[in-house]
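re: ur question from earlier - yeah i can do the single chain one, its not a big deal. heres the input i used so u can compare w yours
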Amino acid sequence: MIDGKDKIKISASIMCADWMHLEDDIRILEKEGIQYIHYDIMDGFFAPDYCLGTNIINVIRKNTTIPSDYHLMVEEPSRILSNFEPEPGAILSIHYEACRNLHRDLIRIKKMGFKAGVILNPATPLNAIEYVIEEVDAIGVMTVNPGYAGQKLVPQTIKKIEMLSEWRQKDNLKFEISVDGNVNAENIPRMVASGCDILIGGSSGLFVNGNPLQESIIRMRSYIEEGLNQRNRSYDNKIWY
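and the output i got, formated as tokens:
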């Protein structure tokens, strides 16, 4: 059972940062102990937008010690895996829906030195990854469809987080659960209470227009604390057989 808000990690979606003051934002993330910088890579096919080429990513990487959290929204991501350099603690995640041979790609990511992650779109059922689940270090639950920032949460995905957490406990698996999409004041407590470990902070919870970044981090951590309290109450009330 998780017993502290610092056990829930925040991954800062850098595409949502203030690009006119990017270095200032990165220094605040460092000062506040944010655990990951989240890089969204889109090819315009799998997701209807383009974002964050490796030249931009590498400039950021060279100027911060925060580990990387790569999210490849790319058809056949095996085509571009060699563009990414491993670093201690970095996660590289690919979509179930985008891979012809998911198992092969996950094994390659691990051999490269990354933590291997698989991400599921809202409509993809959990049993789709049953036969690769022991190979992954992280499973990402998309609570919106991949693409643009600012979408509304698909409510059924909260149940998916809970089911994934129960599956992990039942089979004594070690993967972390990340949540991406509409991670905000309303949804964070429910996401945390359902069992997630990593929250992808974007435009609705972390880089909020008009709000100082440091204040947004403080608010996110208060919502995390609220979710942990709910989780602990649920844990204490559960009947174990």
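The CA atoms of residues 96 and 128 lie 8 Å apart. not sure if urs matches, ping me
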